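Justification of resources, computational component.

The compute hours requested in this renewal are based largely on the per-chain cost of generating structure records like the one below. Each record pairs the submitted sequence with a full C-alpha cell output. That output is archived, and it is also reused by downstream analysis tasks.
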Amino acid sequence: MGVVVQFNVRHADSNDHAPFNRPASGMFPGRAARKPATASLLRLPFSSLPSTRGLESPSLSLLKECTTIRQFKEIHAHSLRRHLQNGPSLLSKLASLRLPSYAFALLFQLPLPDDFSWNVVIRSLARACRFVDAIGVFRRMKSSGHSPSNFSFPPVFASYGSMAALLPGSAAHADALKLGWATDTFTQHALITMYGRCGRVYYARQVFDEMPLRDVVSWNAIIAALAQNDRAREAVEVFGRMRQAGFVPDEPTLVSVLSACAELGDVALGSSLECYTANRGLLSGSNFIGSALVGMYGKCGRINDARRIFDAMSKRDAVAWNSMIAGYSQNGRSTEAIESFLAMREAGIEPDKVTLAAVLPACAAANALDLGMLVDSYAADKGLKENVFVATALVDMYAKCGMLDHARRLFDAMPERNVVSWNTMISALAMHGRGKESIDLFHLMHEVGMRPNEITFVGVLSACVHIGFVEEGRQFFDSMQRKYGIAPGIEHCTCMVDLLARAGMLVEAFEFVETMPVKPDAVVWGALLGASRNQKDAEMGERIMQRLLELEPENSGNYVMLSSMYVNAKRWEDAGRIRGMMREQGVVKTPGCSWVEIDDLIHEFRSGDVSHVRWRDIHALLQKLTEEMKVEGYRPMEDLVYCTPVRTMMKVREKNVCLEYAT
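The structure output for this chain reads:
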C-alpha cells in the first residue's frame, strides 16, 4: 500500500507535530541547571566535540540523556545541520519516547533505512494501536527488498489480530513459514494471539501444540485464546495442564482464567484463585486481577463478594467500575447499578462505551427514563452513540420505558447493526403487541443478510402469539432447524404451546408438549394450564396439574388456578379438595402486589391493603373507577376469584370486593 509522508506530522501523539526538517528554536529554555552536560555540549562548536563511533558525533550520549520531545527535537535538528547518519538511533529513541508519528515520518527521510529501522517503526506503530500504518510499513519494507525477521512478524501478527483480519494474517503466517521464522518463540506467541482474536481457535491450538518449548507466555496466549472464544471449559483444562507442567501463573494467566470461571459459573475455582492472588500479594497491586474478580463474582451471582473486592481496591479505573456496574445490572439490582454509575462520575472517572452499555439496562429495568435520556445525551456528545453496543442498549432502554417509536427511530438510524440489535427491536415490537411489525422486521433482517439466532426466533414467535398467527408460527418454528440449523429450546417450545393454546387448540398443544424435543418445564405446563382455565376445560386442567405437582408442588398459583376452574364448573367438592391439598402440603397463597413510583418514592400495595397512610383515599378512588367501568360495560371475570361456594367459604361482600378487582 502507498504511504504518504509529510514532515508536518499531525497525528495524535502528544507534541509530536513540529516540523523536524528545520531546527527547533528555543529548546531547553531555563534547563541549564537541570541538564548541565547536555546543555554545555550543545553550545560547543561541532569541530571541538569528541567523535562517537557510528554516529560521528556525541548524539548517542545526548540521546541517552534525552527524556522529552523538546530535547529530542533539538538533537534531531543538530543532526540535520551536520548531515549525520544516525537514523537508527533516533528511531530507537522515538520508540522509547512512544512517538510513533514522528518515527513514521522520520523513517521515510532516511536514504537507506536498515532492517533495524523498519522493525522499530513497525513495533512503535503497532504498540500505539495504529495497526493499518504498521502493516503498511511492513509491506513497504518487503517491497524495498528487505526481508522480515523474527522482530518484524510479532507486531504484524498483533496488528492483524487486533483488526480480526484473518486472511492477510494467514498470508503473513505463510511468509514466516517460507522465511523460517514460524518456529521462533515470539512469533509463535503472536500467532496464537492473532488466531485467537480472529476466532480461529483450532489454528491457535495447532501452533501451541507444535511448540517444542513453552514458557508462561505460551500458556497465557492459548488460555486467553480459548477464554475469548467461548471455550471456557477448555481454558480451565489447559490452565490445569499448565500447573501440572510446573509453571507459576502470573497476572495475565489469572485474568484469563477468572474470565473463564465467570462464563462457567465456577465460583469455587474463582474463589480459590482469589486466595492464591491474596497469598502472593498480587491482588493489592493489580487493577486487572481486581476487576477480573469483580466481574467473575458478579456473573456468578455473588454480588456481595464482588463489592467486597471492589471496595478493597486501592485504585479503581474505568474497568473496575464497569465490572461493578455490570454485576449489579446483571443481578437485577438496578438501583445499585445506577448509584455506582453516579459514584463513578463523582470520582472523576470518565464513562466509556462499556459503562454506558452496562448502565442502560439498569435504567430500563428501573424505568429510570430521565437518567437514560441523560446517558443518551452524554453518548451523543462523546461520539459513543454510533457504537453498536451503546446504540442497542439505548434502543432496549427506550422500548422498555414505553417509548417504542423513539426506539424504532434510533434503530433505523444505527450505522451498524449486529444480531443483538435486530433481536432487541424484534422483541420490543412483539412485547408491545405490534406483532405484524415484528414479523416484517424479521423478514427485513433476512433480506439484508443478517443470520438470525435462537433469540431472534423467541422474539418472532412471541410476535405470532400476540397476534394469533398460528400458521406463521408453525412455519417459523419448523424453519429453525430445517433452514438455520437451530435446535428448538424450551423458550421456543413454550411460545408454540402458548400460540396453540390461545388459538383454542388445547389438544394439539397438549400433544405438542408430550412430543416436544426438550423436556417440558413448569413454565410450559403453566402456560397450558392457563389456557385450560381460559377455555374452562377442567378435565384438561386436571391432567396438566398432575405434571405440575411433580415439578413444583409448592407453587400456590397452580392450585389456585385449578381451584378456580372447578369453581367455574360448579365442582365445589373438587375445589374443596384442592384447598385441602394446599393445607396438607403447607402451601400458602402469595398475595398479589403492585407498586408505583411517585417523586422517587415507591408505593407498594397488596389486595385489601390498609397500611398506606392514604388508604381511605385510595379505596374511595378505586370504588369510583369501578363504578365508571361498570357504566362502560365492564364485567368481572368470576372464575379468577379463588373461592369455594359463597354460602360456606366467603361472605357475599368479600366476594364482591374481589370481583371488583378481578381482571
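The radius of gyration is 34 Å. Residues 525-660 form one domain.
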